[in-house]
Design goal:
The structure is a single chain. The relative contact order is 0.16. 45% of the residues lie in helices and 4% in strands. It is built from 6 helices and 2 strands. The longest helix has 10 residues. Helix 2 runs antiparallel to helix 3. The protein has one domain. It is mainly alpha-helical and 104 residues long. The model has no long low-confidence stretch (mean pLDDT 77).
């Protein structure tokens, strides 16, 4: 369930942004995108996308990741193609215990 950057760009080249995830998928289906591209768009997080770059950052792509990039992604506890606001970030233990960070 992945596509390449060029297929995704070509599928969305004439789309007017901003657009919702549902509209992205619908547009790609109606304009003849291949099944891998449509599946990748369906895997994108819900939300509105302001441009193609945001879409590219949110869908699983089948290219361009070196071994070090993949290791960094695993280390940072993120998933391929997941938007930054949907990634897990460890919480601060001070905030967990005291309810706020008191400057220490």
């Amino acid at each position: 369930m992945s596509t390449d950057r060029e297929s995704l760009k070509a599928s969305l080249s004439a789309l007017d942004f901003p657009v919702s995830k549902e509209a992205l998928v619908e547009y790609a289906e109606k304009h003849g995108a291949d099944q891998d591209t449509v599946r990748a768009l369906r895997a994108a997080p819900l939300g509105d996308y302001q441009n193609v770059s945001e879409v590219l950052g949110s869908v699983p792509l089948d290219e361009g990741q070196s071994s070090s990039d993949k290791a960094r992604q695993r280390r940072l506890n993120t998933k391929d193609g997941l938007a930054e606001q949907h990634t897990e970030t460890p919480s601060n233990p001070i905030v967990e215990e005291l309810g706020e960070n008191r400057g220490s």
